[in-house]
Amino acid sequence: DKEGQRLREGVNAFFTMSLGGRFGSNLGYFLQARARYGPGAKEVELHRGYLDLKLGKFLFLAGKDNVKVGPSRFGGLLSGLTSPFWQVRVQTAEPLRFLGLWDLLAMRAWLLEDRRDHSDPGLLFFRVCFKPSRYLEFGVNRATLYGGKGRPGYALWEYPRLILGQEENVPGSKYDNDAFLGYDISVDLPLRPFDLFRLYYEKEATDVKTPLQKGEKFEFDLPFVVVKLYEGASTFGLLVKKAPFSFRGEVTLTKGTMYLHHAYPHEGFSYKGIPLGYPYGRDVLHIAAQIRYQRGEDAIEVEMGFIEQPLKEDLEPVKELNRYYLGLSLEKRHGNFGVSPFLRVDLSKGENLSETPLHYELRDRERLIFTLGLRLSYFF
Known about the structure:
Elements: E1 13-23, E2 27-38, E3 41-55, E4 58-65, E5 85-92, E6 96-97, E7 101-110, E8 122-133, E9 136-146, H1 159-164, E10 178-188, E11 196-205, E12 207-209, E13 228-230, E14 233-242, E15 245-254, E16 270-271, E17 274-275, E18 284-295, E19 298-309, E20 321-334, E21 337-352, E22 362-378
């Protein structure tokens, strides 16, 4: 229920109530109301709510939800950190078996919000994940931001052409939208005494060229051979588990054109002020480490990191923002009660006054920021 939370200086309070269940083994529901009280904000909303239907190995979902994909902590195209949005989704409830294990996901979403570029755009998202063995997993992601006020609409029979992106590089075409293509590779090494030792890599591109598109020639590139990826974002990661400890380390680089392209030049690939993909936005270097100790439902977690942005873009009068952070959180469960205090300290050299991390309005200001919170839960 923490998705979409943007904290402001002062006291921020969130109250949530969740209700869910199933009718038999196939039909399920989930409702979550959230009230927020804080500086400049006082609202009560249906934060999340959906119906899902399980048929065989597939799950059909309709309602308000969000999704995280990929092996990294956040995901380069869908982080799951934005406010839930209205959608219809179909995905595998359990893997399909054919020369290995397959997981599929297809989603059509409505990003209902007033925007400076094009209000109320749509989002198409597809993921195919193939696991030929217990040690290797390969995933492919495809996202298209399209439609909205002032943009073309599409009949049902035009969607295949939209999804394939044959005219994405044709300026002025009805099918020239902001689209992304990416892949991820995870390798699990059987190293003792670890329960899990995983290396992973994610790559997402804002510009794709293939001879299948109008006016484009063949250019060799891996892993798609006939599809070349330009610009975009990359994440290198390591995940190690040995009960009761786990460690995750990541290095993420995003280019200046990531999430902010030609068709949607202001809010871009975001929803309600938070990027749909990597939460720190574009033109960023982020080095992070996370250590977690967990016994049953009780846990202690420490995270630390360094952020530099913009990494390449030249700005005046302040060239860049550098941030160092250290966080500590505790999760404790006693019967039906749960308590989770947390503390994060940020040393920020430079400050971004923009409402979204997709744009920069920097000023020269050094700040030491303390974020202290407490989460109380009761489970019925």
